[in-house]
Design brief:
alpha+beta, 12-stranded antiparallel sheet, 4 helices, 39% strand, globular
């Protein structure tokens, strides 16, 4: 999502209008979950830059933005060629947590989905949660539209899993030097496979992140499917790195 005339700001809100192109679609011509996450991530990035708390400002202080939870629910799956406005709202901080709320609005003005995320600051050297004075004060407090609430945690299903092992590759890694959260969803979609996703789309999902996955990490993954529900988890030496769960809807 380039920074251009389709990007506007108002108080705590960022409005990003995007056209769903071929690179954002799956083989069925519908918006990929990973592309949804990318749109959310881009909107938060430009929103923070506008508020003076973006990556550019914080890298100089040795701090990084990292996401810890994401929730997404779509009423319908947008298709190739559609134009959407991603409305991203920076909400008041909850201690060391920085929540965001999202609406996905089509050209007719109808809300086709919504989402939420919560971010932390991490020290680039220690790789631990960090505090930077005055960051929370830079987020405008506005009346009405959004109130502070945190995304719910992802939950692992209880059925027997299909197991695999993955090692991050170059394109999985981001500016923070770890696997970007978008690629956890890509890994999940690859685990679900073509035979499932040809007939079903992911209508909603939650992701929880417990620890970084760095370039040298071997990730043991577990996929579980129970009727229309699924979960996909990653472990590093028996310690959970992430949990993702969601719902499949018939195409």
């Amino acid at each position: 999502m380039p920074r251009n005339s389709d990007l506007t700001f108002e108080g705590n809100a960022t409005y990003a209008t995007i056209a769903i192109g071929p690179d954002a679609c799956d083989m069925m011509g519908t918006w990929r979950p990973g592309a949804t996450l990318t749109a959310m991530q881009s909107a938060t990035h430009y929103g923070r830059e506008n508020l003076g708390i973006g990556c550019t400002d914080l890298l100089e202080k040795g701090k990084l933005w990292v996401v810890s939870r994401v929730n997404v629910t779509l009423k319908r799956i947008p298709r190739l060629g559609e134009e959407l406005t991603v409305q991203a709202f920076a909400l008041p901080a909850v201690k060391l947590l920085f929540p965001w709320k999202f609406l996905f609005v089509d050209q007719a003005g109808k809300t086709v989905g919504e989402g939420s995320s919560v971010w932390n600051l991490m020290d680039a050297s220690s790789r631990r949660v960090s505090y930077v004075p005055d960051i929370a004060e830079k987020i405008p407090v506005t009346d009405g539209v959004c109130r502070t609430e945190l995304p719910k945690a992802a939950e692992e299903l209880l059925s027997a899993p299909k197991k695999n092992a993955l090692r991050p590759v170059y394109t999985d890694l981001d500016i923070n030097g770890h696997v970007n959260h978008v690629h956890y969803m890509d890994w999940c979609c690859n685990a679900l496979g073509i035979s499932v996703l040809r007939h079903y789309a992911i209508g909603s999902f939650c992701i929880s992140f417990m620890q970084e996955i760095r370039p040298e990490t071997v990730v043991d993954t577990e996929l579980r499917i129970e009727d229309s529900a699924f979960s996909f988890s990653g472990y590093n030496a028996d310690s959970p790195a992430f949990i993702l769960n969601g719902t499949l809807i018939k195409r």
